[in-house]
Amino acid sequence: MRVDLAGRVAFGRILRGIELLLAAGRDVSVIAVVSDPSPQRARRLHAFAAELGCTWLGVNIEEREGVNAQRPTTRDLNRTAEFWAELLRCWQENPRVQVREIDRALGFAAHTLREQPSPSRPAMIEPLPTVAFDGSVTLISPELAGFTSERHGVFSCGNVLDEPLDQLIDRGLAANWVREYRRGLRNCRDLCPYFDFCGGGHPSNRHFEHGRLDTTETAYCQNSKIALMEGVIGVAHHNIIRNHPR
Ligand code: SF4
């Protein structure tokens, strides 16, 4: 249950805010964090978003990250793939509520089918500078800001109160932890069949799950990229068989 800074349950006020937005003619999008994905939960979640009057539903499978570091991570990939497959079926039944992740997966599939085969996308580093409240700058992932690693120390390349941001970015891109992440990206590109869809990012999940940045698979990408794509492919396969029985 989401609470406000004072620890009070915020659910009723969130519902009221949604009602006001809808009454003012605004589209409403919601993001849900799902701890234990299952087909039944997918159906309830989509129905609830429809009941609220939402246009878009975004779904984050709960991650082990930041202050949420002690939580177990979902590992039953078949069940998670079924969760995504059920969300896809729910959207097909009621397209008024679109699902962000399904839309991305279908968009990728459509693009792949339309375009000529091309070489894998490059393993690009996005500097993504994050400036903390005290001016300290972290690169490649806002979720790493304020955290340290036993191997690399603090994930910061300096402070904007002392140095211009472009200098900090230049220096930060050569830091050991960014170089380690670059190796991880290359490993993803070279080893993972889902790389073109996924892009191989998520440095914070690598750190919080494995304690280093040059690994490849994490529970995060298994749940949110691999199982998602497998769920969508499973529905497509099932529909083809149903429509064209032997
Ligand atoms: S799915 Fe995982 S292993 Fe594959 S490219 Fe993405 S982050 Fe790397």
UniProtKB/TrEMBL annotation:
Membrane-spanning intervals of the chain: none
Gene3D superfamilies according to UniProt: Aldolase class I (3.20.20.70)
InterPro entries on file: Aldolase_TIM, rSAM_sf, Sulphatase_maturase_rSAM
Domain of life: Bacteria
PANTHER family per UniProt: ANAEROBIC SULFATASE-MATURATING ENZYME HOMOLOG ASLB-RELATED, RADICAL SAM DOMAIN PROTEIN
Annotated protein name in UniProt: Radical SAM protein with 4Fe4S-binding SPASM domain
Source organism per UniProt: Actinokineospora xionganensis
